[in-house]
Amino acid sequence: MKIVVAKSYKKNQIIDLLSSYDKNGKFFWNKRNTIKIFKVAKEEWNVKSFKIPNFINQFAYKYIRKSKAQRSFEHAQQLLIRGINTPKPIAFVENYTLLGLGKSFYISENLRYDFTFKELFDENFPNRKHILNQFTKFTFELHEKGIHHFDHSMGNTLIVAKEKNQYAFYLIDLNRMVFEDMDYDMRIKNFDRLSLSSEMIEIISKKYAELVNKDVSQVNKYMTEVCKTFSTNRNRNKELKKKIGL
Questions:
Q1: Phi, psi (rounded to 5 degrees) for 105
Q2: Count of Cβ atoms closer than 10 Å to residue 38 Cβ
Q3: Which of 182, 179, 11 is nearest to 79 (CA)?
Q4: Which residue of 99, 164, 191, 240 sits 20 to 30 Å from the alpha carbon of 19, by its own alpha carbon?
Q5: How many domains does the chain have?
Q6: What is the mean pLDDT of the chain?
Q7: Which of 124, 74, 66 is nearest to 100 (CA)?
Q8: Contact by Cβ (8 Å): 224, 201
Q9: Does pLDDT of 244 surpass 80?
Q10: 23 vs 189, more confident
Q11: Contact between residue 87 and residue 110 where contact means Cβ atoms under 8 Å apart
Q12: 29: which strand partners?
């Protein structure tokens, strides 16, 4: 077993928690991967258990590339260094078998948030346009700081309401991320997984055009195209999986 912990935490805390993982904790998410919430001393911890990878990836995650758990932990540290909010990283754990990587875990602070980006699809959501503009600025800051979050989707930004109509945005689901310079094409394509409505695109493209000093109509047109292409490809893939029984 490999355990890496952040400063101020100890390995025995992690060992004690995982030894009772199946019996204790409260499920927050229970699908392909599972997430449980645990109370540890005066804190709440969010423990993500990754599904055991297939045979090829078991070998790869042990000998060739970093596991999802390790990437999540290291990416969280990098985000905080770059001034981007994410729940505080606490530890990652990897269990190995003769084949390679077995169970793995990413442990972080459990953030008490107010809502996610997904709620903003409700056109009657309070202060919605103002929040969308702030979210656009947040995404621009990611791009400016060279943070390419491949899972920049509607459920992966947690939002905390602050005073005076200000909002704090926290990134989660961090394993698919690259730190690199992002050109204009990469930046606009990074909005595609948000599944934006045409009305949301109008608000977001206007603000993003202002931030990157581009023509509004050009940004709107391109953002509309990439969102439509992603949606079409996703629906096609879903239909294909149905046909072949996946």
A1: -140, 145
A2: 18
A3: 179
A4: 99
A5: 2
A6: 94
A7: 66
A8: yes
A9: no
A10: 189
A11: yes
A12: 35
Tokens 């045979």 sit on residue: 55
Residue pLDDT, tens place only, 211-240:
999 999 999 999 999 999 999 988 887 777
Tokens encoding 237: 């893939």
CB 40 within 8 A of CB 15: no
Residue 3's φ and ψ, nearest 5 degrees, are: -125, 125
Residue 63 maps to a domain: yes
**DSSP codes of every residue in 198-212:** HHHHHHHHHHHHHHH
- For 126-176, strand residue ranges (E) read 147-149, 157-161, 167-171
Task: Look at residue 138 and tell me if it is in a domain.
Answer: yes
H or E element that contains 116:
strand 115-116
> Tokens in use for 106?
């990413």
pLDDT digits (tens, 9 = 90+) for 105-157: 999 999 999 999 999 999 999 999 999 999 999 999 999 999 999 999 999 99
DSSP-derived 3-state class of residue 240: helix
Structure tokens at 115: 């809502």
Query: 40 with 125, same domain?
Result: no
Given this model, what pLDDT does residue 229 score? 94
Report yes or no on 28 lying in a domain. yes
Q: Do 168 and 209 fall within a single domain?
A: yes
**Residue 114 near residue 159 (C-beta atoms within 8 A):** yes
Could you list the residue range(s) of the whole structural domain that residue 231 is in?
115-241
